[in-house]
Amino acid sequence: MERAICLVLGLGMIPAAAYAVQNKGNELTDPVEILKKADAAAKSVDSVKYKVSYKGSGSAGAQAPTIEGTVLMNGWFENAPDKFLCDANVKQPGSSEVRTITAGSDTQTFYVIDHQAKVAYVDFVPRVFGSIGRPALNLQMSEFVHPNPFRDEINGRKQELKGSKKIGGEECYEVYVVYTNRLLQTTWYFSKNDFLPRGVIRRRPGPSGERLQEQWTLTDVVVDPEVGKDPFKFRLPAGYTKSNDPAP
Asked: What pLDDT sits at residue 227?
């Protein structure tokens, strides 16, 4: 999915058909066909749980935190996942400290829990997340619950099958995409088993023209997982303080 925040240097238009070659065995070789299968697979997902790691590389490495955690998501509302629970371990650039953050919503309530400070910020609007909660939200791969998950990739200017890569025990197709705005470039990794994403690399220019790159890697993807009652509902941990102010 083409995101407004991801703007990257563009490349010229090259027809996707130029990258389709003869099919060998059961392997798919047409990148657009792979994207269409990924789109259909993601549309069949009601809820999903996965482990994920995030990092910036290139010039983005000096600016972006390193984040690892788990995500549970369900549904889509307006322009974001409807219900979600993100548990994240965040390490800022140049620091060895790991900060543990939980960010979530049950549709009606939004909350951020800072486990180091033992403070929970709770409100009825997303602004409560603040700078503390944003790294946890960054672990969301919203294509799992988006109504048109890979429409922008299917209709992009360029699609190319680069090869294969194993991620978390899953053999994946590696599909490179240039979008219609010619600025954003991504490399997607789709499981050859279920066609759901296991990773993505996004490339975009920074404000001063420098090259930025971000990478998400997913493992242990479970579709429609069995979870306890009201897993997205806010619960104040014992010994924590509740605040109605936005997180810092």
From this structure: 87
Across-strand partners of 103?
86, 112
Closest by Cα among 12, 3, 29 to 178: 12
Quote the tokens at residue 169: 């025990």
- The answer to whether 152 and 144 have CB atoms below 8 angstroms apart is no
Q: What is the pTM of this model?
A: 0.87
**CA quadruple 38, 44, 47, 51: dihedral, nearest 10:** -20
Which tokens belong to 175?
């599909």
**Three-class secondary structure assignment of the chain:** CCCCCCCCCCCCCCCHHHHCCCCCCCCCCCHHHHHHHHHHHHHCCCEEEEEEEEEEEEHHHHCCCEEEEEEEEEEEECCEEEEEEEEEEEECCCCCCCEEEEEEECCCCEEEEECCCCEEEEECCHHHHHHHHHHHHCCCCHHHCCCCCCHHHHCCCEEEEEEEEEECCEEEEEEEEECCCCCCEEEEEEECCCCCEEEEEEEEECCCCCEEEEEEEEEEEEECCCCCCCCCCCCCCCCCEEECCCCC
**Per-10-residue mean pLDDT, the chain, length 248:** 42 33 69 98 97 82 85 94 97 90 97 98 96 96 97 97 97 96 91 98 80 93 92 97 95
How many angstroms from the chain centroid is the CA of residue 153?
15
Question: In the numeric block, which tokens belong to residue 120?
Answer: 């929970």
Angle at 18 between CA 32 and CA 213, to 5 degrees: 65
Report how far apart the first and last C-alpha atoms of the chain are (Å, whole number): 30
